[in-house]
Amino acid sequence: MDSNASHGPALFATAASPDIVAPGVPVRTTCPYCGVGCGVLATPDGRGGATISGDLAHPANAGRLCSKGSALGETLGLETRLLHPFVDGVQTNWARALDQVAKRLQAVRAAHGPGAIAFYLSGQLLTEDYYVANKLAKGFIGTPHVDTNSRLCMASSVAGHRRAFGADVVPQCYDDLELADLVVLAGSNAAWCHPILYQRIQTARGERGVRVVNIDPRRTATCEGSDLHLPIRPGTDAILWCGLLVRLAERGLLDTLFIDAHTRGFSEALGGARTIAPTLEAIATKCGLPREDIELFYEWFSATPRVVSCYSQGVNQSAQGTDKVNAIINCHLATGRIGKPGSGPLSLTGQPNAMGGREVGGLANMLAAHMGFSEGERDRVRRFWDAPNLVAGEGLKAVQMFEAVAEGRIKALWVMGTNPAVSLPRADAMRDGLARLELLVVSENVAGNDTIRHAHVRLPAAAWGEKDGTVTNSERRVSRQRAFLPLPARARPDWWMLCEVARRLGYGEAFAYRSAADIFDEHARLSGFENEGMRAFDISGIAGATGEAFQRLEPFQWPLRPGSPPAERLFADGGFFTEDRKARFVTIAPPRVSAAVSAEWPFVLNTGRIRDQWHTMTRTGLSPRLAIHIAEPFVEIHPDDAACLQLEQGTLAKVETVDGSAVLRVLVNRGQQSGTLFVPIHWSAENSSAGRIGALVQPATDPFSGQPEAKATPACIGRHPVGAFGFLLSRQPIQLGEAAYWAHARAPFGHVVNFALNEPRNGWTAWLRATLPEGEHMSFQDAMAGTYRAAVLRAGRLEAVLFVGADPKLPSPEWLKSRFALAAIPASERRDLLAGTPVEGTTDDGPVVCVCFQVGAKRIEAAAAAGNCSVEKIGRQLGAGTNCGSCIPELRRLLASSGVVRDLA
Ligand code: SF4
């Protein structure tokens, strides 16, 4: 099948992407980070690198990329890659490694049954990898235990969609964000986590006056572009949305025609909502919001037919996440605002291919192609796959799967492209549980992370830039990820490894794929197999595409049925995927208090992402540019709480929960609610002494989705006293493993280590001095003050700078960082190095705000003081904010405040 004739937008480009990638020839691919799924143009340089730009032709981003996407070119090096297979710590060849995987899996199955084997997959995998893993496990090995890190990210949205629509369908598309008159962001720091969508919203806000409401306990960067911020009490979102449903009913603003024709369960849902949110006063009290702000939100929602409600991890990652999703969807169903241009609910997915994983059945409670485990569905899949061992029902979801590992019920686990030893709740216990496995296989592209170090078998997987296949973004748009670099050393695609193991287990015939195109074609055919319009996920309109056509495949949205154009939106006229084709209102259960704070655990711990890092930093951590913005793990706390606990800005705090602890830099922030803490999820044992946030998170899960409650763990916080604080800037990596605290980050000149030491008064001087590289050493010491400073030059060039003091308020490292760019430090400047203050004629830019143009806060403030007091003027003057735009919210905040916004190095 290779025709564009019967479809709307062209499905295939007229010019083929080259089979063999040539230097200088751009390749159209997709960003591997968030669920926006931006199109990327990668132009290989012939030396293993590539220049990166946004793909103007991709509908998700029209050429724009955020800071993370723009820095992809800095993450392509091989220095941290796993490049050869290893078995029991010994490098080996593929044949032996695969033989061992098959033999050991077979042994576990023979001794304990197939249910002792599990697969833990990732929203970073391509759909084709996911498809083969799921087929091998659920159809041939016969284990239902296949789950994915997407369980931690959007499982509550999946469950909410299935309850309301009968299928896991996102009814809207991104264009709706520009067509709406009101955009509600619920539990979404889109400015940092979905930056390109946030920019699309902000453009519409600037051009058309689109209103933005932001529902989030924290005042985040997203608030800088919002018209109303509702700092809701954690865990009370469902009350707010139930109150809206009640208000819509009271004011006669329901779409009764839509309700009658296309839905069921409205009366019960409304009755339940009235119980939960009887009056505005009750809502205000329970949600901790000003009554007039709730009133305003309800008024805007009521009066605006074109409203898109976006929800993300703040809603999903909750022990009541599914009910929260359904409380939002209920309001849209009640007003008939669904599937229409600029009007409907829109789940913002965290990962690039979480949606693709859902399509193939990568979740433990789905089978394949959106089918479940009814007898009819199982029979259909069994016949299609000719599967000898099709599973009988659902498997263990992520948290339960790793509990089974820790308890010894799962004996063999294959982890693909994810780092559960960092990211799971109770991460320390989960990591320790890996030791009980008889077989841990990890297919990865990095040689070291917290998970792979426990593996019996390490398989070198293809990385972004080498992979070939498809991903599906948050608007159901399937896009190609194309290889633009050759596979290095022994690295291979995940699907290839799975097929080789399948062959060794005796299933070669069912896994005889020659390419990703073969797998995609089977996936497309299964989606349409005995479908007859009953299953939402159907891309059989593209089944039969040749390998050459697969190369030219353009981004398209599903469903894509034979002879029909792809569907931009669904459900405007009903047609849900329940048995009677009607949507279901869901009666929301009264919210439980998910974070049981107490005298011992008085804080609610919230977790989340930062602007320039992705997951556990195995890729974004390689980019010096991205590490500049925030270089170490931190805990945000309200000024009143900080004062009460004598926690000062820049000191260290120990955060503890029932399950673990972390030591983090204190960031006092008025945007944090009193009684709550915020910590970022990205740091691991690879780059910090005690920044593993997963270790703190409780294992409570949502009863419908199995998604962990990552936003509200009871916690306590206290000072973490140390004798001295310091930073080390160095061209070469230097380990400070003996320090009481350390966090390592890349920098354009080399490496930055922020650290703290236990002993006061220079007891550590000799040890620290010994860690410095060889060269011409200069130092300054004040034993009484506990101060030590050193610089190392080699042939006049700066090699390292070390500052230690009793106080965390050390001189700013920013000017010192700029000295690494000099071929030689002028003799007149040498003494200034130890002072840490800019010499005359040079400047200290302050902490970097715009990573694209390396513009610091002090330079922005100076430009603003000189009259450039708008984002546009700053952009014209300094370039800041004019490339990826990710820093624009921070620019706005800087301009709005006269002081320095943050002190983190
Ligand atoms: Fe990648 Fe940024 Fe686009 Fe997300 S918004 S897909 S991280 S470029």
Task: Give a short synopsis of this structure.
α3 (127-141) runs parallel beside α20. The protein is of the alpha/beta class.
Structure, explained:
This protein has 905 residues and is α/β, with parallel strands linked by helices. The chain folds into 6 domains: 5-75, N-terminal domain of TfIIb (Single Sheet), CATH 2.20.25; 86-153 and 353-557, 3-Layer(aba) Sandwich (Rossmann fold); 155-347, Dimethylsulfoxide Reductase, domain 2; 603-719, Barwin-like endoglucanases, CATH 2.40.40.20; 724-835, Enolase-like, domain 1; 848-898, Arc Repressor Mutant, subunit A (Orthogonal Bundle), CATH 1.10.10.1100. Helix content is 30%, strand content 18%. The chain has 30 helices and 34 strands. The longest helix has 19 residues, at 94-112. The N and C termini lie far apart (55 Å). Residues 1-7 and 898-905 have low confidence and may be disordered. Bound molecules: iron/sulfur cluster (SF4).
Q: Roughly what percent helix?
A: 25-40%
Sketch the major β-sheet.
7 strands, mixed
Task: Name the beta content range.
Answer: 15-25%
Structural class determined from secondary elements: alpha/beta
Radius of gyration: 27 Å
Low-confidence stretches: 1-7, 898-905
Query: Which ligands are bound?
Result: iron/sulfur cluster
Count of distinct structural domains: 6
CATH class of the largest domain: Alpha Beta
Distance between the termini: 55 Å
User: For this entry, what is the oligomeric state of its chains?
Assistant: single chain
Let me know the number of strands: 34
**Mean pLDDT value:** 93
